[in-house]
Amino acid sequence: MNESEKLIKEKYAKQGYNFLKDGSPDFIFFREDENGIVITKSIFFCEVKGLGDSIKLNQYKYMEILKSLGLNVKVELVEIKNTYTSNHYSDELAQQIYSEIKQMKTKRYTTGTMASEIQKKFGVSRASFYRYLSKFNSKESLIQNDKK
Length: 148
Hints:
single chain, 148 residues, Trna Endonuclease, Chain: A, domain 1, 2 domains, 5 helices, 4 strands, elongated
C-alpha cells in the first residue's frame, strides 16, 4: 500500500468505514451495522491517484462497468510531499534508503529484489524506489569519477 492509499484508507477509517484492498479499483469501502452486517448503501469503490497520475485504460473500464451496475465509484486525488529532493542527502528518509541500497548492491541483490525490500521496509512506491536508485547511481558515478 503506497502513501496515497494509506492516507485515503485512514480518511475513511476515521469516518467509520471498513475496507477491502488489492482489487481494481484500489479499495472497496463499506460500513457495518452493530451485528457485522454490511450496510449496502454505504458501499463505494475508490481508486487512489497521486496528483499527476492518470487512470489506466483497464482501470477506467473497471470503473465504467461498476457504474453501469449502479455502484458508487470515486477517484481520490492525493498530494504527498515527496521526500525525494534535489539535495537528497539532506533528507533523513532518503539517507536511510541510500544506505540500504548501498548494502543491497554489495550483496548483489537484483533490482527487483531491492525494489520489493525497499517498498516493504520504507513504504515507498516502486516508482519512488526507482527515482532513489537513479539518484543513488548518479551520485555513486560522480564519486567513482572523482577517484580517477
